[in-house]
């Protein structure tokens, strides 16, 4: 985290009859991007709405920048909200949508124009200011909603699944855009999602909430290593490394190991490898494969995840997961403590640029 705590949630409980949040403790540092992740119905949005002041807790406190705001209405908390559907005013231009919060705060016309000019340039939406929301694409609406949230210079921006309405083909592009803008502006953010890949890419830390309880808060690696949290993090292997582009491939250094990817990238990256793209071979036998990544690894665990077996591996400190059928598991004699050879094709190592904190 960058510095002092910007938001603190202390022993928070909310009871809605058929669902409750219980004894929530959570903190967000100044400039931190915290992702709240969990399955549908876990209480993510309820927690966000309680922090914002839309719902009053039964117990506990909410502290924003050192000030107790638990009993204050939403407009007195100096927090911005980006709802799932963005809630842009359809009868207003983009300019007037962004200006709304500034005008409510009594800012002068010249200051409104100046601030909107600055934020529009940063978010690359200056050419959209005279248009109506109905004419915008999903990605453009997302940028306008973010501009409206940021322009009032809040203590923090709280976003409720802001990418869920975006077509999957554009989602990665907008994730990268959010990462870029956060890196540039350094605002404090709480981002709600059910998507573990989105959480892994965007979050400086991830808070996992299940059944109204926060069961783990930590880095991607800490959640992966926690038995109670790892099952919610999805099957994909997600590694952090540094990429260097060569003539027709990319070398990624991960924990002292060089991996080769067919994707182009430079600098800090996340590497995503599906378990089914990691192949296991007997140690001592040269596998018949064109894969460019060959590593010796130790089997650290074998678990049955119907209909396959999940094999946990460690190669020089790099933790990976692979899938095997029951037949393959028996034929290869894969068991805990056994050393094996693993292979991965360069095309299986997907790369995303990473601008967070390593």
TrEMBL record:
Keyword RNA-binding appears in the UniProt entry: no
- For this protein, what reaction is catalysed? tungstate(in) + ATP + H2O = tungstate(out) + ADP + phosphate + H(+)
Keyword Oxidoreductase attributed = no
What keywords appear on the UniProt entry? ATP-binding, Molybdenum, Nucleotide-binding, Transport
* Top enzyme class: translocase
An example GO BP is: molybdate ion transport
Report any Pfam family annotated for this entry: TOBE
Q: Which InterPro entries match?
A: AAA+_ATPase, ABC_SmlMolc_Importer, ABC_transporter-like_ATP-bd, ABC_transporter-like_CS, Mo/tungstate-bd_C_term_dom, Mop_domain, P-loop_NTPase, Transp-assoc_OB_typ1
Gene3D superfamilies registered for this protein in UniProt: 2.40.50.100, P-loop containing nucleotide triphosphate hydrolases (3.40.50.300)
Look up the EC number in the record and give it: 7.3.2.6
What is the designated name of this protein? Molybdate/tungstate import ATP-binding protein WtpC
